[in-house]
Amino acid sequence: MVASSSWRRTLGNVRSFVGNSLGGLRGGSNLASWAVAGTLAYFLWVKPSRDLKKQQEERAALAAASDRYAYVEKRKPIPDPQETGLIYGKRSGTKSSDN
After folding, report:
1. Where are the alpha helices (DSSP H) in the chain?
2. Residue 67: its pLDDT value, please?
3. What is the pLDDT of residue 80?
4. Long-range contact list for 32-37, CB < 8 A, 24+ apart?
5. Source organism's superkingdom (predicted)?
6. Is 97 inside any structural domain?
7. Do residues 26 and 19 touch, judged by C-beta distance below 8 A?
């Protein structure tokens, strides 16, 4: 009997802690307040930031498309772990070390 009352007390303490951390409201009023807060947060913070990001992407795409003569790299450079820099064509020569 002692063990069952212990976990019940613990469960009750957790429920009261969660209820108090949510503002002490219970039932429908709690749900309604969270819905209002979530809606306000979406329209005041989330939606404007998404719209701004979308506008910036559209401007960048328009600017990139308007410049027909911009240089575009069509091949990927080959990484060279032995020497500094990147190789774009054939190697000019191999270095041999004398031991």
Report:
1. 2-21, 28-41, 47-66
2. 76
3. 64
4. none
5. Eukaryota
6. no
7. yes
Distance of CA 66 to the CA centre of its chain: 30
Tell me the residue type at 55. Answer: Q
In a domain, 72, yes or no: no
pTM over 0.90: no
The torsion angle over the Cα atoms of residues 42, 47, 48 and 52, rounded to 10 degrees, is 150
Tally of domains within the chain = 1
For the chain, strand residue ranges (E) read 78-79, 86-87
Q: What is the predicted pLDDT for the residue at 36?
A: 92
Question: In this structure, is residue 41 part of a structural domain?
Answer: yes
User: H or E element: which one contains 78?
Assistant: strand 78-79
Q: Mean pLDDT for each 10-residue chunk of the chain (99 residues)?
A: 74 82 70 88 95 94 80 75 61 57
Both tokens of residue 42? 């979406």
Q: Which residue has the tokens 């949510």?
A: 22
Residue 58, domain member (yes or no) = yes
* H or E element, residue 67: none
- Per the structure, the complete domain to which residue 30 belongs is given by 26-65
